[in-house]
Amino acid sequence: MAPTAQPLSRTHWKLAVAGGMASYLDSGLIVSLGIALPIWSTSFQLDAWAIGIISAGLTFAIAVGALFGGRIADLFGRTRVFNIDVLLILVAPSQAVLVTGVLIAGVAAGADLPTSIAVISERAPAGGQGRMVAFTQVMWTVGIVMATLLGFLFSGLGDLGARLLFAHLAVAALVTWLVRVFSPAFARLEVQTLPSGSGERVLPLTGLLRDRRYLTAIGLTALFYIAYGVVANTIGQFKTYFLVEVGGATQTVATGFAFVATLIGLTCAVLFTRAADGPWRNRLFGIGAAGLVAGLLLIVFTGGTILPVVFVFLIVYNLSNPFCGEAVYKVWTQESFPPNVRATVQGITYAIARFVFAGVALVTPALIAWSPSGLFAILAGLAVTSALLGAVLIRRTRSAVLVSA
C-alpha cells in the first residue's frame, strides 16, 4: 500500500522549484523555437524542410543530452551533475550561429531533466514523491506560459523578438544555477533510504538490461512516452507555425491566444500535482486521454483552416494534456525503479522518445503542407495508443508488478 500523503515542507517545495527549472528551460526552449519558426521562415527565407531540420536538430540534441546526462548523474552523483550541467545552457542563445545555439541548449536541457527529477524523487518524503515529481510538470507548463507571453509581447519586433526569447532562457538558467549551488537549504534534505540490499552501488547497465522486470518496465514507459510525446512535441513545436501557415493567424494573434490557452494548462497541471499521490491520478488520466483524442479529431475533420475551431482545439488540449502525459510518465518512472537507477532509466526512455520526436519533427512541416488533417489523424492514432499503454501501466502499478525494489 502506498504511503499516506503528508504535507511537504517549504524546503521540499523549494527543491521542487529549483529542480523543476530543468523542465521550465526544456519547455521554454521548445516553445521559443516554435514561436521563432515563422519569423525565421521569413527572415532567413527557410522552406519547410529547413524548418524541419532546425526543429529536429533541437529535439535530437535534447535526446543526446538526456541519454548521457542521466547515466553520468547516477555514476558521478546526481546532486553534483544537478548543480553543474545547467551551466551549458548559458552559452546556448547565440545571435550569430542559430543552429549551434539551438543544439547546445538542447544538449544541456536534455542532460538536466532526468538528473533533476531523480534528485527531487530521492529527497521526497514518504507519500510525497508523486506531488514533488508532478510539480516539475507545473514548472514545464510555466515555461510554456512565459515563452508564449514573451512571444506575444515581442511579436512585433521580428528577428529581435526571437532573440529576446532565448535571452530570457539564458537569464533563467543563470538564476537557476546560482540557487542550486549557493542555497544551503537543499543540503538539509536527506536522501531517502535505498531499497534493502541495494546499497549505494549503481546497477551496471548490463544488469539493468538483462533483468526482465526492468526491461518490461522500461519498455512500457518508453512506448507510452513515445506515443504521447509525438503528439505533445508536435503541438509544442509547431502550434504557432500551424496557426500562422494553416489557420491564417498573425504572429500576434497566434501567440496571444496560445498564451491564454496555456494558462488553462497551467491550472490543470497544478490540479494534477495535488492528485498525484492519490486515487484521482488514475481517474484523471482516463478523462484526460479521452479529451486529448477528441480535441485532435476536431482538426482531423475540419483541416485546421477554421481559426476558431483551432482555438477550441488548443483549449481542449490544455484541459486534457496535463492529466494524461508527461507528468504521469515522470511519476511512473520514479515509482517503478530504485533511486540508484532512476536517472539512468529516465534518461534512457526520455532519450529514446526524443530521438523519435526528432525524426517526426523533421517531416512535420512537410506533413502540414501535404495535409493538416492527415497529420492530425496520425496524432489521434498515437493518442489512442498512449491511452491504451497508460491503462496497462495503471493496471500493473495496482498489481505491484512494476519494479519498486
Q: What does the model show?
A:
This protein is mainly alpha-helical and 405 residues long. The protein has a single domain, classed as Up-down Bundle (Growth Hormone, Chain: A). It has 14 helices and no strands. Helix 2 packs across helix 3, helix 5 packs antiparallel against helix 9 and helix 10 runs antiparallel to helix 14. The radius of gyration is 20 Å and the shape is globular. It starts with 9 loop residues before the first helix and ends in a 7-residue tail after the last helix. The C terminus is likely disordered.
Compact description:
The protein has helices at 10-43, 48-76, 78-84, 98-122, 129-153, 159-182, 205-210, 212-245, 251-275, 280-302, 307-324, 326-336, 339-370, 372-398. The chain has 405 residues and is an all-alpha fold. Helix 5 (129-153) packs antiparallel against helix 6 (159-182).
Key structural traits:
single chain; 405 residues; mainly alpha; Growth Hormone, Chain: A; 79% helix; disordered C terminus
Helix content: over 70%
Determine the strand fraction and express it as a percent band.
Answer: under 5%
CATH-defined architecture: Up-down Bundle
Total count of helical runs of at least 4 residues: 14
CATH superfamily heading: MFS general substrate transporter like domains
Question: How do the SSEs run, as a string of H and E?
Answer: HHHHHHHHHHHHHH
Radius of gyration: 20 Å
Distance between the termini: 14 Å
Largest sheet: none
Reported by name, the CATH topology is Growth Hormone, Chain: A
Give the total of domains: 1
